[in-house]
Amino acid sequence: MSDANKAAIAAEKEALNLKLSPIVHLPENIGVDTPTQSKLLKYRRSKEQQQKINQLVIDGAKRNLDRTLDKRTPLLPPPDYPQTMTSEIKKKGFNYIYMKQCVESSPIVPIQQEWLDHMLRLIPESLKEGKEREELLESLINEVSSDFENSMKRYLVQSVLVKPPVKWLEDEGGPLPESPVGLDYSNPWRSSYVQARNQIFSNLHIVHPTMKMLLDLGYTTFADTVLLDFTGIRAKGPIDCESLKTDLSIQTRKAEEKIMNTWYPKVINLFTKKEALEGVKPEKLDAFYSCVSTLMSNQLKDLLRRTVEGFVKLFDPKDQERLPIFKIELTFDDDKMEFYPTFQDLEDNILSLVERIAEALQNVQTVPSWLSGTSTPVNLDTELPEHVLHWAVDTLKAAIHRNLEGARKHYETYVEKYNWLLDETAVENIETFQTEDHAFDEYTEELDCCVVWEVYV
Q1: Which of 137, 236, 367, 404 is the most buried (most CB within 10 A)?
Q2: Reduced to 3 states, what is the DSSP secondary structure of residue 203?
Q3: What is the dihedral of CA 337, 339, 345, 351, to 10 degrees?
């Protein structure tokens, strides 16, 4: 293409551009709410005018209030109280009360329901039946919960606040309990623990396995038994005191023989085994056997004590079903009316049975004495303590006197009413009457009395 043609084409394009308007490209964010556009769209002239009006109203109200307050009488200054009324002690007291109220108003964890359930399980079921009992239990639970909450508040106050030395403040119920002091593990304890354990095993012989076997043997033999059987005494009916004494003495002797033929051989058999003295040093052998003797003595003493207590319970006036029935005769001998046996003899015979029970099992040899076969045996100390015997005697005396009150009153009634017939007082009255002069009616009345006397005699 020639240069002339190129120039012509360029001239035509330039002429065409002069005739058409240029193409304008729109921005990419057209139609999107920008912050400036949002503010402009939300703007309302009415809101701005309303705010100005409200502010004018508020300013006017303030001016009116200031003018009103200026017309009032000025407030008086606070009175000048004496120093004693606003002392430091009073300020501390009021401050403590305020702080206490703040602490007490803090939330308190209530008592756990498991604790309340455990308390209710301790109450017998018979005490829970009925509507009134249920209301009582509910009030009890409320009271326990209230006391728990009050105690927690008191603990919280005492642990947080320090009570000032002000006399008129109420007492808080005493100081808080001290926290338990734990063991001091600052020093090594292994060696001291081993030393203490070895010392226990070497000196505290009761933990020896043989002692445990001896203890189990005594428990199985004596736990549910006594020397005498008191259940059939009431069923025998009226008995002589001497007969009862003889029967119980025979039972005591038989029970003693049974124990010596059953329990005692088993005890000896324990200590004839090789493992009986295992771990016991020769120098500790005497102490070991001393522990054996003490354990056996305690078992036999407990058996005798329970037997004495069972015998004393026979005469309990509150338990008439087990009370023995004794034969007592009302006799007249040598112009004297009395019971046989006398009350004192009856009391002495009953108390002698306590002594007979206490005399049982007093010839039981110690284990080393039996094993060594010495000519002079050494017996266990099975004597009952003095306080047990004194208690039994005093209790029996009181029970006997109480149970014999009816018989004693019966005897006194006989003596009071009819003793004058037996001591010849009536005969003397008749002889005196015969020596005197009386009318017929008086003789008739006296004869009637004589007939009554003859009937009673």
Answers
A1: 367
A2: helix
A3: -150
